[in-house]
């Protein structure tokens, strides 16, 4: 097949014969005299032209009648040079065009294009803006810097991934994240994992060294992405890495070192008034509760009322702590008045640190240029113990000019990432769950040790507030155990190789052949030592080996022709072959024979040793074309399309068209309204059905109550198989995303103020989903193309150069986006859970926003008031409903950059307004009596009832709050919080909180040392800087930074349930070059 | 030049027709599209545990007040503060994992010429159908697992139950009915000597369901036909200490959800079962012929962390390796006892009642129960004593059915209600996806069979 294309190319070749009459030569440079490589030199009115070589020199045959050379270079003003009779050498200096330089975008095919000529809403973020944040991940650095993109961190864990959403969600089953094109080749951005428990996973985009990035272009619209057909439905991020410089010194080195400090930016408050124990809810209210060891609840006695010292029994068994050597005896009477909230906090949190060192080397040879970089980043988490991230990267980007016409470019990189993670979320062995539930009067410091029983027999123990003598396994891990004893290491090795040959068949016709390989292995291990809480009390070892190989071949023919003075045409046609091979092999050992943390996976009897695998192989191929017409300079038309076949529907050929139209009303730098362009486009992209949904399958089963965890593994009973609950469907088709977009790009005041506006209306038809079917039909779900999702919104980006003279510059910039993402059709389904719990979930409901929060509601009467029970308390509706919207009404960023002489200060605020989040953590803390609201002491204003129906006499003090739900005051005491008033009750609605936030996303101050100072030491530049990230946060959401998500980078949004916390950071950096 | 463009377009078009590149990849490498009938049958057998021993046992146990919910969601479930979603799992286990798979196993076994497995599958289909009807009232049946009916209609409870009984009845005389229940599977076990056959298992189930219908003569006949004449007769689900083959109540309490389920809080709320078995409580039934101390210790390991704990320790009723009685000797004897008493044969009723009591002495190696006779009990007292004995012998659904059927004749504490919850609620999964859904029922809506 490749051979075929070569034939095609040769065919083209035969036409490229031009007859030369005379030859001119010369150099193209910038105003400083540095040669510009790749500048285009064209004889006006002809097809004759060339590009400048590595030194900026060129030689060109001018046909008869040729009078003018048009010399152009991206970011520079195009020059017309009149040819003089008899003169054959021309040195042409191009002036930089600042306005244009900042206004370049990169198209989906990796071609740089002037913003003024682009017909899409694409925006480009340049390296310096991106890297200022000092984030370890490329994507996180984008936050707040351009409209139309939503970036949410999974958590503050080192190297944790992030969720990227351009505009809104378009698909239910297809890939949720945008297509990532790195140097012209799609790469993987898999986020594997993301349930309600486990560890926070990295994102594969974090493997890239942010220092290697030159720019990221965000392609938001369908028309811009249509050349990628399927796969581009969620928009495209086009990332270009740095290349060797084509001008200037032959050899330059730039290096940087930065050191950052991270700490938790928002924590849940814990009460310190009442101890561990059970409440009095039927009598003795004024005594509040009684001490009960090992209970989960902190509804016990008032700590201040105690005697002062624990009375213990020293005649029986005892526990000796490993950490402090303290001996713990059974408590016969609780007397200790110490509150350990701070001690317990300091056990797990610390100031994390990040050390990032990088060096980039440019080498310019005679016929080549090279960019080589090395980086190493070491991050020690803000959680103590086994939480870190260590990334080493090497990149070599090489360009060779083999001949005048043939050049080779090879981009290659290696990333090695080693990291340790901490268990999180809804997980008895997770960090926050055990930490936040710990009673205030319990000291977590000693988490492991030895229990010696009354007979003097000693055994290892795990001590936690649910088992204070370490005699067995506590119901929840001691947080010290979670961070120090449990291990979750992972190791990623990733190779990206992308060689490319460019062949300039004619001055205005170029053939590019590009291959891209993205290969990584991700090896994850988990060690639950013997005595860990949860499923693996007798120890568990897990190992996952994930490999993914993505290969792409592109053959692209790109040319242009000026058909007449008034009509120019750029054309691109190409072919793309995509091949993805994913393998995951998992092995496990549980109930370890030798009670050791050593990763010996055979350490279990055969029936407790398991392995599973998941394989998938996917391919697509398609041809695409882009035609750009310029008519009378002002009218721009672009037509593009892709015809494609995919592995999941091999018998069908799908075509994705797009058309864009733009009109430049004005383009005069001197005027108040300097530039105005209106644009409109329509495009279609698709999402192919996932593989293997065509047939029903049989799966092995583990009957029992899966939701609670008590199940019987069929493998222990001769093997059990059942027809899958999901019905296969051989008649699936592609989802089609259709989008109409209009917008304008404007500049005012001699280009000082620029403004981009876009409105879009997007619809996904035939959206595929796993439709819930009545279990009585024999299936609980089936796949069907029946849903419809819409996204409509506005985007605005602006930039205003308030001051711009030689020494001082002040730029203000900002963006705002509004997106409405509605599930308009969801026939036969009342709700479809995307992620979460059966109590509260992020779900799809017809007519509701995508990912709506869904759960238990208050029972209400016709007037919408609470329907109260006989005790005056609200009760729950038996039917669940939509209780919140996790999508913001609007997001925005506002930044300022000031530079004066060598000093630069930049500030960026980011906001997201109007979204809801389920504060499941808070609900559960209220249940356990940890939330400060539960520690209020109230006095009954009259004889009032509690939720258990008991009467609290007037004037009696009790623990809780007096609330009037509508039938007069009632006592919200433990009986309420332990029932429907707490997080395990059925009224989830009460924990939906406004999760709007505004934050100082980043602030950076840097100083470039004057060049005069450096001359003597051989350095060409030195700068020092300090960056603050996330230093200020304003949000009504309680206890956590709402920029988080329990289920990671998944479609289900807006859930907070013992997520590991977020961070704020300060970074110091030093950069220098020579 | 134009020709060049066309040439490239033409060659590009050739590539797209390269269908071979993408062919034959959409074949699932991770899962089977067909498996032998035996493996599906194994599932059908094992999945009985999801009904008899898992969540339904616990909810039924709390709503009968055998157990008390003492933590988290179980506190609210015990207070009947449940929503439709609470029952999603149970319903799925009955219909998708139960009835549908039983039908698939029958169809496939028949196709493979495995008549015996087909017959056993039919019997278990009857089990799932009957339990579904008793738990939920009107439920779908004829349109279940039929691609022509994506939204199965609900049929009257009594009709569905009759169909279930017919399925079981046919199996009792079908292929392989005389084999012990341990035949053709590694899930069920029965007594070493004698033991229970698939046919007798079917009869025992019939007895349970006739009793639920208050058809006492039929229940008596079926229970006798079950031939539970030895203490070791019965059908038990095998449990061992291997991970995920442990007793499900053990897994729930000891491994997954400690404290959720218990016999109540120390000195405040105790379950009726605890109060009946304990000495000195107002409900205690201890007398000179009845000493429940050993049985109580077998069921409960006493107070710890403020609650009366379920005995999941070694040797306890809910120990990790304690088999679970899908149908046990006491249940069948007590069906005989109640049916005989209600049909006027008190002598036979007393014999069966004594058999049931003596079972515990045998199991525990005690001599705690002296035989009762006509001077001790007769008439309504006898029926009540039989029901109490069943209440403290059989955990979960069968006892909950008794509570509903007799309108709580034994006077168990109904907590926040005054009368028994009449049913489980229809699940949210049917509400949201079945266009034939008949409308919500509440816990107060009685089902015809029990009324």
From TrEMBL, chain A:
Domain TonB-dependent receptor-like beta-barrel, first and last residues per copy: 443-1010
Any one GO cellular component localisation term in the record: cell outer membrane
Extent of the signal sequence: 1-20
Listed Gene3D superfamilies: Carboxypeptidase-like, regulatory domain, TonB-dependent receptor, beta-barrel domain, TonB-dependent receptor, plug domain
Record's keyword annotation contains Transmembrane: yes
Domain of life: Bacteria
InterPro entries documented for this protein: Beta-barrel_TonB (IPR000531), Beta-barrel_TonB_sf (IPR036942), CarboxyPept-like_regulatory (IPR008969), Plug_dom (IPR012910), Plug_dom_sf (IPR037066), TonB-dep_OMP_SusC/RagA (IPR023996), TonB-dep_OMP_SusC/RagA_CS (IPR023997), TonB-dep_rcpt-like (IPR039426)
Membrane topology: Multi-pass membrane protein
Keywords, ordered alphabetically: Cell outer membrane, Membrane, Signal, TonB box, Transmembrane, Transmembrane beta strand, Transport
Subcellular location field: Cell outer membrane
Ranges for domain TonB-dependent receptor plug: 120-236
Primary localisation category: membrane
Family that this chain belongs to: Belongs to the TonB-dependent receptor family.
The protein's name in its UniProt record: TonB-linked SusC/RagA family outer membrane protein
Organism listed in the record: Neolewinella xylanilytica
From TrEMBL, chain B:
PROSITE patterns: PROKAR_LIPOPROTEIN
Pfam family, one: SusD-like_2
Region (Disordered): 429-451
Record SUPFAM superfamilies: TPR-like
Name this protein carries in UniProt: SusD-like starch-binding protein associating with outer membrane
Taxonomic path: Bacteria, Pseudomonadati, Bacteroidota, Saprospiria, Saprospirales
């Amino acid at each position: 097949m490749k051979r075929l294309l070569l034939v095609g190319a040769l065919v083209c070749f035969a036409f490229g014969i031009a007859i030369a009459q005379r030859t001119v030569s010369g150099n193209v440079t910038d105003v400083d005299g540095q040669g510009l490589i790749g500048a285009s030199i064209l004889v006006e009115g002809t097809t004759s032209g060339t590009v400048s070589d590595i030194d900026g020199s060129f030689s060109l045959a001018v046909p008869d009648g040729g009078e003018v050379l048009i010399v152009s270079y991206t970011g520079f003003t195009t020059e017309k040079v009149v040819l003089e009779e008899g003169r054959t050498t021309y040195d042409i200096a191009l002036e930089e065009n600042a306005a244009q330089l900042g206004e370049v975008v990169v198209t989906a095919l990796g071609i740089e294009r002037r913003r003024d000529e682009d017909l899409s809403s694409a925006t480009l973020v340049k390296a310096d803006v991106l890297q200022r944040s000092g984030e370890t991940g490329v994507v996180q650095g984008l936050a707040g810097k351009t409209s139309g993109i939503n970036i949410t961190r999974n958590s503050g864990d080192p190297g944790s991934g992030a969720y990227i959403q351009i505009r809104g969600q378009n698909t239910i089953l297809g890939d949720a994240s945008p297509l990532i094109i790195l140097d012209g080749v799609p790469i993987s951005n898999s986020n594997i994992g993301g349930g309600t428990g486990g560890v926070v996973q990295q994102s594969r985009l974090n493997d890239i060294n942010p220092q290697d990035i030159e720019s990221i272009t965000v392609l938001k619209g369908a028309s811009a992405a249509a050349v990628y057909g399927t796969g581009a439905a969620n928009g495209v991020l086009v990332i270009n890495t740095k290349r060797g410089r084509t001008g200037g010194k032959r050899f330059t080195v730039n290096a940087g070192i930065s050191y950052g400090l991270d700490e938790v930016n928002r924590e849940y408050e814990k009460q310190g008034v009442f101890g561990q124990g059970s409440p009095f809810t039927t009598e003795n209210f004024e005594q509040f509760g009684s001490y009960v060891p090992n209970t989960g609840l902190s509804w016990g006695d008032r700590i201040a009322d105690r005697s002062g010292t624990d009375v213990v029994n020293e005649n029986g068994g005892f526990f000796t702590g490993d950490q402090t050597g303290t001996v713990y005896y059974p408590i016969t009477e609780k007397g200790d008045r110490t509150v350990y909230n701070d001690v317990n906090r300091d056990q797990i949190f610390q100031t994390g640190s990040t050390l990032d060192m990088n060096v980039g080397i440019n080498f310019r040879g005679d016929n080549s240029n090279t960019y080589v970089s090395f980086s190493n980043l070491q991050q020690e988490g803000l959680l103590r113990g086994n939480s870190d991230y260590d990334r080493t990267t090497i990149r070599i980007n090489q360009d060779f000019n083999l001949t005048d016409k043939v050049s080779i470019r090879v981009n290659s990189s290696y990333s090695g990432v080693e990291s340790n993670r901490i268990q999180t979320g809804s997980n008895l062995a997770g960090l926050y769950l055990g930490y936040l539930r710990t009673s205030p009067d319990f000291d977590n410091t000693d988490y492991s040790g030895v229990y010696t029983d009354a007979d003097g027999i000693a055994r290892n123990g795990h001590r936690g507030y649910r088992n204070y003598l370490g005699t067995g396994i506590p119901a929840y891990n001691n947080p010290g155990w979670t961070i120090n004893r449990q291990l979750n290491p992972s190791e990623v090795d990733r190779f990206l190789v992308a060689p490319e040959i460019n062949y300039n068949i004619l001055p205005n016709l170029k053939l590019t052949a590009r291959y891209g390989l993205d290969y990584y292995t991700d090896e994850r291990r988990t060690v639950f030592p013997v005595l860990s809480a949860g499923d693996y009390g007798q120890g568990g070892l897990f190992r996952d080996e994930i490999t993914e190989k993505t290969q792409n071949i592109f053959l692209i023919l790109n040319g242009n022709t000026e058909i007449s003075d008034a009509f120019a045409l750029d054309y691109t046609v190409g072919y793309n072959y995509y091949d993805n091979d994913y393998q995951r092999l998992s092995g496990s050992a549980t109930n370890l024979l030798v009670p050791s943390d050593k990763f010996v996976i055979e350490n279990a009897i055969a029936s407790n040793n398991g392995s599973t695998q998941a394989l998938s192989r996917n391919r697509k191929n398609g041809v695409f074309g882009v035609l750009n017409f310029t008519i009378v300079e002002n009218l721009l038309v672009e037509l593009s399309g892709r015809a494609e076949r995919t592995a999941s529907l091999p018998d069908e050929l799908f075509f994705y068209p797009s058309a864009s139209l733009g009109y430049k009303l004005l383009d005069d730098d001197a005027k108040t309204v300097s530039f105005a362009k209106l644009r409109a486009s329509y495009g279609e992209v698709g999402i192919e059905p996932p593989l293997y949904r065509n047939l029903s399958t049989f799966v092995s089963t583990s009957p029992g109550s899966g939701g609670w965890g008590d199940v019987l593994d069929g493998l222990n009973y001769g093997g059990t198989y059942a027809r899958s609950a999901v019905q296969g469907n051989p008649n699936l088709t592609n989802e089609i995303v259709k989008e109409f977009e209009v917008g304008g790009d404007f500049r005012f005041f001699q280009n000082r103020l620029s403004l981009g506006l876009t409105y879009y209306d997007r619809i996904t038809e035939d959206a595929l989903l796993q439709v819930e079917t009545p279990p009585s039909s024999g299936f609980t779900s089936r796949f069907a193309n029946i849903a419809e999702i819409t996204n409509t919104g506005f985007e605005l980006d602006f930039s205003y150069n308030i001051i711009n003279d030689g020494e001082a510059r002040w730029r203000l910039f900002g963006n705002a986006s509004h997106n409405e993402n509605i599930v308009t059709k969801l026939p036969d389904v009342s709700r479809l859970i995307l992620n979460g719990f059966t109590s509260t979930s992020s779900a799809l409901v017809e007519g509701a926003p995508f990912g709506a929060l869904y759960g238990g509601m208050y029972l209400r009467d016709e007037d919408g008031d609470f329907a109260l029970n006989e005790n005056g308390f609200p009760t729950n509706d038996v039917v669940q409903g939509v209780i919140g919207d996790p999508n913001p009404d609007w997001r925005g960023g506002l930044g300022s950059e000031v530079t004066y002489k060598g000093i630069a200060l930049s500030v960026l605020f980011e906001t997201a307004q109007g979204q809801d989040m389920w504060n499941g953590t808070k609900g559960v803390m209220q249940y356990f009596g940890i939330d400060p609201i539960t520690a209020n002491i109230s006095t009954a204003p009259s004889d009032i009832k509690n939720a258990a129906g008991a009467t609290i006499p007037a004037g009696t003090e009790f623990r809780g709050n007096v609330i009037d739900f509508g039938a007069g005051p009632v006592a919200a005491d433990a009986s309420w919080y332990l029932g429907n008033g707490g997080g395990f009750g059925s009224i989830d609605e009460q924990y939906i909180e406004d999760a709007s936030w505004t934050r100082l996303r980043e602030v950076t101050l840097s100083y470039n040392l004057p060049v005069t100072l450096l001359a003597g030491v051989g350095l060409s530049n030195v700068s020092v800087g300090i960056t603050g990230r996330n230093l200020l946060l304003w949000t009504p959401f309680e206890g956590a930074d709402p920029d988080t998500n329990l289920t990671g980078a998944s479609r289900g949004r807006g859930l907070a349930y013992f997520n590991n916390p977020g961070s704020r950071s300060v970074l110091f950096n030093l950069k220098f070059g020579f | 030049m134009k020709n060049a463009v066309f040439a490239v377009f033409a060659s590009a078009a050739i590539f797209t027709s390269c269908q071979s590149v993408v062919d034959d990849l959409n074949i699932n490498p991770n899962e089977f599209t067909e498996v032998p009938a035996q493996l599906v049958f194994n599932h059908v057998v094992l999945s009985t545990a999801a009904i008899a021993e898992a969540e339904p046992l616990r909810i039924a146990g709390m709503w009968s007040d055998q157990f008390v919910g003492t933590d988290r969601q179980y506190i609210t479930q015990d207070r009947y503060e449940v929503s439709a979603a609470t029952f999603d799992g149970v319903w799925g286990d009955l219909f998708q994992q139960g009835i549908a798979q039983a039908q698939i196993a029958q169809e496939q076994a028949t196709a493979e010429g495995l008549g015996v497995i087909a017959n056993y599958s039919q019997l278990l289909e009857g089990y799932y159908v009957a339990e579904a009807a008793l738990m939920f009232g009107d439920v779908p049946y004829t349109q279940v697992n039929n691609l022509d009916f994506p939204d199965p209609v609900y049929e009257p409870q009594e009709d569905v139950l009759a169909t279930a009984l017919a399925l079981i009845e046919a199996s009792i005389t079908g292929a392989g009915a005389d084999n012990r229940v341990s035949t053709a599977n590694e899930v069920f076990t029965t007594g070493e000597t004698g033991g229970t056959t698939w046919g007798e298992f079917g009869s025992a189930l019939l007895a349970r369901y006739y009793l639920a219908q208050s058809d006492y003569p039929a229940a008596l006949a079926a229970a006798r036909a079950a031939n539970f004449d030895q203490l070791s007769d019965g059908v038990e689900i095998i449990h061992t200490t291997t991970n995920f083959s442990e007793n499900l109540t053990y897994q729930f309490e000891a491994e997954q959800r400690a404290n959720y389920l218990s016999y109540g809080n120390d000195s405040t709320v105790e379950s009726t079962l605890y109060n009946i078995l304990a000495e000195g409580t107002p409900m205690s039934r201890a007398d000179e012929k009845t000493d429940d101390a050993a049985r109580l210790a077998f069921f409960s390991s006493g107070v710890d962390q403020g609650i009366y704990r379920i005995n999941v320790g070694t040797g306890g009723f809910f120990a990790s390796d304690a088999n679970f009685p899908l149908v046990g000797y006491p249940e069948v004897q007590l069906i005989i006892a109640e049916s005989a008493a209600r049909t006027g044969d008190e002598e036979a009723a007393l014999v069966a009642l004594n058999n049931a009591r003596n079972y515990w002495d045998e199991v525990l190696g005690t001599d705690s129960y002296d035989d009762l006779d006509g001077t001790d009990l007769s008439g309504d007292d006898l029926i009540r004593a039989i029901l109490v004995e069943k209440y403290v012998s059989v955990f979960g659904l069968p006892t909950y059915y008794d509570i509903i059927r007799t309108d709580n004749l034994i006077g168990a504490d109904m907590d926040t209600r005054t009368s028994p919850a009449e049913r489980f609620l229809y699940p949210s999964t049917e509400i949201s996806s079945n266009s034939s859904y008949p409308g919500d029922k509440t816990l107060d809506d009685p089902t015809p069979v029990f009324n």
